[in-house]
Amino acid sequence: MRLTVVGCSGSFAGPASPASSYLIQADHLGRTWSIVLDLGNGALGPLQRYVDLAALDAVFISHLHPDHCVDVCGLYVTRKYRPSGPVVGQLPVHAPSGADVRFALMYHGLEHGGMTNEFAVHELADTQVTRVGPFTVTAYRVNHPVEAYGFRVEADGAVIAYTGDTDTCDALTPLLTGSDLALTDSAFVDGRDDTPGIHLSGGRAAAAAVAAGGVRRLVLTHIPPWNDPEVCRAEAAAIWSGPLDVAVQGATYEVGGRA
């Protein structure tokens, strides 16, 4: 699998990156399959550098905060109004309950019927498994003020785990265990951000990866522009001794299966 960081800024788009969005691709049956995890504000622009938007196979939305889903509106425009004619068929969008209504409300003046001609919206549930080409995607309900999910993506023996937005919770163990790459929320700073049930810090993300076991690489993401990424890295490095990165827009990871 190949992971491309399309956007990694936490809570709002920053000067160096859009908000949350991650492209995962794999070759299978003679073509490249492409899924996107989240489409936060500003993400649709750089996403076009890496994939033809009409060629997306599915979108997975972790939760319905704007920094994770609002660019679904732009994706709708690209499918409905392109000069060569609408994209044929519905794009599967897997999202929390009420997503179809929320998407329609975000697009002011949308005609009757919402986005149902362009998107087939499927409601997520805890431990729900979805198969898209070579990908098996398992959703895990995580700890955030709204209905929110992390995604475990598996293909050809490789595993990418994405926490979405979450604080420490039991679901992080099955989500992260044995992953080749763990992409973890790290929006909070230890000792400064003490409100429970919202986000991980670098330290708590690292602790979750250690507790889960078998994680090969930790990538910290969803860091707001007002935070110093090196503080986040240092908090994680105090606990995590394996390969450690802070996500940056445009970074690409080749994630291979285990021997």
CATH hierarchy class name: Alpha Beta
Strand and helix order: EEEHEHHEHEEEEEHEHEHEE
User: By CATH's scheme, which homologous superfamily applies?
Assistant: Ribonuclease Z/Hydroxyacylglutathione hydrolase-like
Give the total of domains.
Answer: 1
Low-confidence stretches: none
Give me some keywords for this one.
alpha/beta, globular, seven-stranded mixed beta sheet, 7 helices, 259 residues
What does this molecule look like?
- The model has no long low-confidence stretch (mean pLDDT 96).
- This protein has a seven-stranded mixed sheet.
- It has helices spanning 44-50, 66-69, 72-80, 99-106, 172-176, 202-212, 229-237; strands spanning 2-7, 21-28, 31-37, 58-60, 91-95, 119-123, 129-132, 135-141, 149-155, 158-162, 181-185, 218-221, 244-246, 252-254.
- It has a single domain, classed as 4-Layer Sandwich (Metallo-beta-lactamase, Chain A).
- 20% of the residues lie in helices and 28% in strands.
- The protein is globular.
Secondary structure layout:
Elements: E1 2-7, E2 21-28, E3 31-37, H1 44-50, E4 58-60, H2 66-69, H3 72-80, E5 91-95, H4 99-106, E6 119-123, E7 129-132, E8 135-141, E9 149-155, E10 158-162, H5 172-176, E11 181-185, H6 202-212, E12 218-221, H7 229-237, E13 244-246, E14 252-254
Parallel strand pairs: 3-4, 4-5, 5-6, 10-11, 11-12, 12-13
Antiparallel strand pairs: 1-2, 1-14, 2-3, 7-8, 8-9, 9-10
Helix pairs in contact: 6-7
